[in-house]
Write a structure and sequence with these properties.
This protein starts with a helix and ends with a helix. The longest helix is centred in the first third of the chain and has 21 residues, at 41-61. It has 13 helices and eight strands. It has helices at residues 5-13, 15-20, 25-34, 41-61, 65-83, 90-107, 157-164, 192-203, 221-231, 256-265, 271-278, 307-316, 341-353, and strands spanning 115-122, 125-132, 141-146, 169-174, 209-218, 235-241, 294-299, 321-326.
Length: 356
């Protein structure tokens, strides 16, 4: 029996992202090889996550906190990738998602540097994030990490490390329609609103310097971050990774899994309503409002969107711009992570350490 084409897509396109963001290569190979139907995706990855979770909990019981943090972080990433596009069964997706959140929360005190779960007031309820601060740095600059359509804060450890090692704090958060925020709040095009809420929250603390705040976004977050930077002027520098210029313009070419995830996470009643919202996610007329320095990254082999979106954005912003087009890079260039991850982290550190 041939594999479900949705599972085939996983085999053909997702391995670099999974591995770059914390899934052991053999886990990816073994789990995906055993899945024939998309309906079995979530449970198969949850079973693998349970193996890492069990080791993490045992390490905790035995007093090996550092090891526990690693095991539980890996478990959280496995559970995240179990649920990341599994919107065909929201109940199963949410239950698995909560296991990802629990494992990452258990890991946070044992990370180096440790993390803190934070609750950000937002529209009468809350958004949730993870704040981490570099060791031995008083009131460091802070980088706010914005998720994409199918990413969540539990996936971001590899990116957080890059900034932390360069003396920058990180605040990774699930916005509306993202991670823990997807249940109470639908996707919104004006992402400066949740970013503003995050900065407001951080301004109420005395352990990070919000006068030197950067913003980073990945995939659909590569739209959200530039959009927010255009109108939230407390942002001093922005990184956009493989974001669309106009989400509505490419709606009909998006994979079914992606469109379905957008429909569910936008709380749309049907595809027509989702398409109408997608049309609002555009940088047309917005890009010239971006005056802070921005670093834009795209892969020329991206199957979701054209690298020309990045070129258009770079041409239209009003502030200083760096554009990196990776010739053999896929979506978010996860297959060539070494071509941009360190470089963008260095750039952000230079921008924020010099800001003030």
């Amino acid at each position: 029996m041939s594999k479900d084409p949705r599972v085939e897509a996983a085999l053909n396109h997702w391995a670099p992202r999974f591995v770059a963001n914390g899934i052991p290569l053999t886990d990816f190979q073994e789990v995906t090889a055993a899945i024939e139907r998309w309906e079995d995706w979530c449970s198969a990855w949850a079973d693998r996550g349970a193996i890492h979770e069990e080791m993490g909990r045992k390490a905790l019981d035995d007093g090996y906190g550092l090891s526990a943090g690693e095991h539980l972080t890996t478990a959280g990433v496995c559970y995240h990738f179990a649920k990341f596009l599994f919107v065909n069964d929201v109940e199963e997706m949410r239950a698995t998602h909560m296991r990802a959140v629990e494992c990452r929360n258990l890991a946070l005190p044992h990370l180096r540097p440790p993390g803190e779960r934070v609750e950000i007031p937002y529209e009468g309820k809350s958004l949730f994030g993870i704040l981490r601060k570099p060791a031995d740095v008083d009131t460091p600059p802070v980088v706010i990490l914005a998720m994409g359509l199918d990413s969540s804060k539990e996936e971001m450890g590899a990116y957080e490390r890059l900034f932390l090692e360069r003396g920058l704090a990180t605040c990774t958060f699930d916005g509306p329609g993202q991670g823990e925020g997807e249940y109470d709040f639908g996707i919104r095009h004006d992402y400066e609103v949740p970013v503003g809420a995050v900065i407001d929250y951080l301004e109420g603390r005395n352990d990070v310097d919000t006068g030197r705040a950067g913003l980073w976004g990945v995939s659909l977050g590569g739209y959200y971050a530039p959009r927010a930077a255009a109108y939230e002027k407390r942002i001093k520098a922005c990184i956009g990774l493989s974001g669309p210029y106009d989400w509505g313009a490419i709606w009909d070419t998006l994979p079914d899994l992606t469109r379905n995830a957008f429909l569910v996470r936008s709380h749309s009643a049907n595809e027509e309503e989702a398409r109408d919202l997608a049309k609002k996610l555009s940088l047309n007329g917005v890009a010239p409002e971006i005056t802070c320095p921005i670093y834009i990254v795209t892969g020329k082999l991206d199957r979701l969107l054209s690298y020309k979106d990045a070129e258009r954005l770079a041409a239209e912003v009003s502030g200083p711009v760096e554009l990196l087009v990776i010739e053999d890079g896929n979506h978010v260039a996860n297959n060539r992570a070494y071509r941009y991850r360190l470089q963008t982290a260095d750039w952000m550190a230079e921008q924020l350490h010099g800001a003030g």
